[in-house]
Fold:
Amino acid sequence: MAAEKGSAFLLKVGDGGSPVGFATVAGLRTTQLSINGEMVAITSKDSGGWRELLSGAGVRSVSVSGAGIFTGSAAETRLKGNALSGAIDDYRLSFEGGETLTGRFLVTRLDYAGDYNGERNYTLSLESSGVVVSA
Structure:
């Protein structure tokens, strides 16, 4: 498998339509994805001293974080509105190889910063709410 470019790892926000259309959150410089799962142990005296886990049980979640340059795009405005209102919205992560992860997320953190005579930048964190689908 060939190495993929980090710049091709894109965060997109839904447009609220049906079907949902997605727009790239412009200016994203770095993005990180974490897939988390909690386990359910079913170890008993019949386990022979080895831990056993129940497949498909527990809680799964996806966390996304990113940082970028503020450009004032419609996608950034929608993301900011979601952060201010606490709204859960549709988001999609797309990768260079064509794979996507799509689901509903809550913006749990949105920070803006800027240096004198420099660009305005932001960092964000998203947490999944419900099923995240890989395609």
In short: The chain is about 10% helix and 45% strand.
